């Protein structure tokens, strides 16, 4: 496989950076020339500079705001390169909402949870459905459509959070602290990327 790939990431407490680096390692192993960079270090994506772009960020009351803004302001360049997104999260409620055409969604099996009552989702469950997560991400991309979007279970370390963040995660997301990153799922998805991004 040949080609230049940008893996741009945002992170709140640092753990999504490790996920981005693991994705970058797999792409490098497959033969790509890979730049793994924090979003804050990428002023703008020059159209044509990369053969594919991967953008990753945690769900922090929605996909982290600077990732949404990064995708939005680079829409034009992203529409010209094969594109993939990933998110880390602590919970994702399974629901039968339809997924937009042409977007392949991968959900870490360790992240997805059955709702307590499929007929009527609870407040926390409605807040954490695939549709709730995916809608704003796709909206930020406009006409740039990702070939693949993945959701992986992440890491929560209360010592690295501000007090109000901790309260939000406990009360709204209902997540327990711990490192739940599923490296097999992360690296497995990354190994499929060359084919999904037409780089193979
Ligand atoms: C303020 C805040 C809000 C969060 N909101 C969500 C959320 O809506 N859904 C979810 O599943 N996880 C949520 N999380 C958990 C993070 O997505 C998860 O811990 C992620 O792996 C953190 O990545 P980081 O270490 O790169 O910041 C939230 C975490 C924080 C601190």
Output the radius of gyration: 16 Å
Written as H for each helix and E for each strand, in order along the chain, the element string is EHEEHHEEEEHHEEHEH
Low-confidence stretches: none
Spatial strand order of the main sheet: 2-1-3-4-8-6
CATH topology title:
Rossmann fold
Strand-pairing-aware structural class: alpha/beta
Q: Report the biggest beta sheet as strand number plus sense, adding barrel if it closes.
A: 6 strands, parallel
Percent helix among the residues?
25-40%
Q: What is the level 1 CATH name?
A: Alpha Beta
Number of strands: 10
What is the overall silhouette?
globular
The hetero molecules present are: flavin mononucleotide
Instruction: Quickly give the CATH architecture.
Output: 3-Layer(aba) Sandwich
Report on this model:
This protein is of the alpha/beta class and 200 residues long. It has one domain (4-196): 3-Layer(aba) Sandwich (Rossmann fold), CATH 3.40.50. Helices cover 35% and strands 22% of the residues. It is built from seven helices and ten strands. The protein has helices spanning 15-29, 65-73, 75-78, 123-127, 130-141, 163-173, 183-196; strands at residues 4-9, 33-38, 52-58, 83-89, 92-93, 104-107, 112-113, 148-153, 155-156, 178-179. It has a six-stranded parallel beta sheet with strand order 2-1-3-4-8-6, with helices on one face. Strands 5-7 form a two-stranded parallel sheet. The chain has a two-stranded antiparallel ribbon with strand order 9-10. Strand 1, helix 1 (15-29) and strand 2 (33-38) form a beta-alpha-beta unit. Helix 1 (15-29) packs across helix 7 (183-196) and helix 2 (65-73) packs parallel to helix 5. The structure holds flavin mononucleotide.
């Amino acid at each position: 496989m040949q080609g230049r790939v940008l893996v741009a990431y945002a992170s709140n407490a640092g753990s999504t950076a490790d996920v981005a680096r693991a994705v970058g390692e797999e792409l490098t192993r497959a033969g790509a020339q890979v730049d793994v960079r924090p979003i804050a270090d990428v002023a703008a994506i020059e159209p044509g500079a990369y053969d594919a772009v991967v953008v990753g960020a945690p769900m922090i009351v929605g996909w982290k705001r600077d990732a949404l803004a990064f995708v939005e302001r680079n829409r034009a360049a992203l529409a010209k390169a094969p594109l993939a997104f990933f998110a880390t999260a602590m919970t994702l409620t399974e629901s039968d909402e339809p997924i937009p055409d042409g977007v392949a969604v991968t959900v870490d099996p360790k992240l997805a949870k059955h709702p307590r009552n499929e007929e009527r989702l609870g407040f926390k469950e409605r807040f954490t459905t695939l549709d709730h997560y995916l809608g704003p991400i796709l909206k930020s991309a406009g006409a740039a459509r990702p070939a693949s979007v993945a959701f992986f279970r992440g890491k929560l370390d209360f010592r690295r959070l501000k007090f109000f963040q901790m309260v939000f995660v406990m009360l709204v997301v209902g997540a327990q602290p711990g490192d739940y990153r599923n490296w097999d799922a992360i690296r497995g998805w990354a190994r499929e990327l060359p084919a999904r991004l037409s780089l193979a």
